[in-house]
Amino acid sequence: MSLNAESTAFRSALEVIRAVEPRVADAIGAELADQRESLKLIASENYASPATLLTMGNWFSDKYAEGTVGRRFYAGCQNVDTVEALAAEHAKELFGAAHAYVQPHSGIDANLVAFWAILADRVESPALKKAQVRQVNDLTEADWFALRRELGNQRMLGMSLDSGGHLTHGFRPNISGKMFDQRSYGTDPVTGLIDYDRVAEAAREFKPLILVAGYSAYPRKVNFRIMREIADSVGATFMVDMAHFAGLVAGKVFTGDFDPVPHAHIVTTTTHKSLRGPRGGMVLCGPELADQVDRGCPMVLGGPLPHVMAAKAVALAEARRPDFADYAQRIVDNAQALAEGLLSRGTKLVTGGTENHLVLLDVSGYGLTGRQAEQALLDSGIVTNRNAVPQDPNGAWYTSGIRIGTPALTTRGLGTAEMDQTAELIHTVLSQTTPGESKAKYVLDPALADKVSKQATELLAGFPLYPAVDLG
Ligand code: DSN
Fold first, then answer.
1. Catalytic one among 63, 122, 279, 348?
2. What is the CATH number of the domain that holds 69?
3. Are 298 and 410 within one domain?
4. Is 64 a catalytic residue?
5. Which residues pair with 157 in a beta bridge?
6. Please, which of 239, 272, 286, 449 could form a disulfide with 279 given CB 3.0 to 4.6 Å?
7. Tally of CB atoms within 10 A around 51
């Protein structure tokens, strides 16, 4: 029997790798087996298509291409130009953006590119202007000192980490919390929702240079029209980090006030979460910031990764197909079914439900910390991650929450009926786990963990991952 193209491609690749370092080939095979067997509910993960994966394993990886399309610091970049331009073109069409910069290697890189583009655009600095017209050698020591003083200590207002914001939005352990004078807005203590009046009040008081919206653990839609009005009222640049929900924007589930692209001055994203592309980042903006954004490499980034930009072009082409909109809608339908399944079993959810791809469980209702719950679920074949809940008494390490998301299981084909079964498995584990003598320790009958693990595998058996890939 002849093998299909995908099996042939991956088998051949592993054979070539095995000839050099068999342990790596084995680990790659083992990773596929693990991913096939586990109920992956990590909200920021997904499964890229075989075409996207295969696009990353080739000689594009060997090429240096600092600069931008048609304007490189290295010779021989014509093929890199082709794939970078294609990825940018697909991104612009998909999101309706005037400009797309597809070089960032990750979400934090994309955010740094955006921060520096905004600083360079907004901060009045004669020294910076000199530097940017390539008179760097004319800058005196005093100019450099002025430049550092003028660019530093600018103000950023972003969503707090424990309300679901991301650590790159000004959280102290991240560089954004050190380079900016930062303040955060939270959520309403009763509803768990963003209170736009409070955001406006904080903006009026603080007068930030940058207002950031976007989240990694907020289970609701954000009204970007209102956020832009708030930014405009204080003269702030409005930046949205849509890393988590880019797939929902691409799939036109988030439209109108909930689509960040028409409302924000600048939008950043990763490409591997709900967007289902390769690991990487991207920046979208209007013409005003385009030149500054294109300085991302070498300003902030190392040399671009042409093999990943090529894979971004492939994944973005996939996201432009009509079936991606159906996929995006199913992600949200599944998250809502999962939330309903948990609520009906008595689980406490932050904000009482979801409007996007993620659900945030407050596991204090089960008497557990997030750390205990995360590990008990993992023992039972359910992969999640712990996450702080608003005003979390257990802090960001132990936490009181579990964040779950549906992009990956939706890619596998699981639907709302399977979400209810998933809710049952999660509730069974959490309700049978008791806290141990520390915030990390817990007691769970191994027989029960084993039973749930088997049930999870049975649930997944009807939805094979990479069904066309047979590694033999
Ligand atoms: N690590 C990603 C997440 O899990 O949300 C964001 O950086």
1. 279
2. 3.40.640.10
3. no
4. yes
5. 183, 211
6. 272
7. 14
Catalytic residue among 66, 89, 181, 188: 66
- The CB of 347 under 6 Å from ligand 1? The reply is no
Domain coverage including residue 251: 59-319
273 is catalytic: yes
Q: Do 101 and 216 fall within a single domain?
A: yes
Q: Domain check: are 191 and 147 in the same one?
A: yes
Q: How far is the CA of 368 from the centre of ligand 1 (A)?
A: 23
Rounded to whole angstroms, what are the CA distances from 275 to 39, 93, 101, 224? 19, 15, 16, 20
Per-residue pLDDT of the chain (472 residues; tens, 9 = 90+): 588 999 999 999 999 999 999 999 999 999 999 999 999 999 999 999 999 999 999 999 999 999 999 999 999 999 999 999 999 999 999 999 999 999 999 999 999 999 999 998 998 877 777 776 656 677 788 888 888 888 888 999 999 998 999 999 998 889 999 889 999 999 999 999 999 999 999 999 999 999 999 999 999 999 999 999 999 999 999 999 999 999 999 999 999 999 999 999 999 999 999 999 999 999 999 999 999 999 999 889 999 999 999 999 999 999 999 999 999 999 999 999 999 999 999 999 999 999 999 999 999 999 999 999 999 999 999 999 999 999 999 999 999 999 999 999 999 999 999 999 999 999 999 999 999 999 999 999 999 999 999 999 999 999 999 999 999 9
Please answer whether residues 110 and 283 qualify as being in contact, where contact means their C-beta atoms are separated by less than 8 angstroms.
yes
Whether 66 is catalytic? yes
Say how far apart CA 469 and CA 193 lie, in whole Å.
43
Name the nearest CA neighbour of 209 among 147, 272, 152. 152
- Annotated active-site residue 178? The verdict is no
Same domain, 311 and 416: no
What separation in Å is there between the alpha carbon of 108 and the centre of ligand 1? 10
Q: Which residues of 352-375 are buried (b: 16+ CB within 10 A; e: fewer)?
A: ebbbbbbbbbbbbebebbbbbbbb
Structure tokens at 383: 């992969």
- The atom number, within ligand 1, closest to the CA of 108 reads 7
Catalytic residue check, 71: no
Using an 8 Å Cβ cutoff, are 312 and 280 in contact? yes
Cα–ligand 1 centroid distance for 275 (angstroms)? 14
| Cα of 122 from ligand 1 centre, angstroms | 29
Q: Is 46 in the pocket of ligand 1 (CB under 6 A)?
A: no
Last residue of a domain, one of 283, 303, 319: 319
Provide the number of structural domains found in the chain: 2
Query: Catalytic annotation on 366?
Result: no
Q: Does some domain include residue 341?
A: yes
Give the domain-ending residue among 295, 319, 343. 319
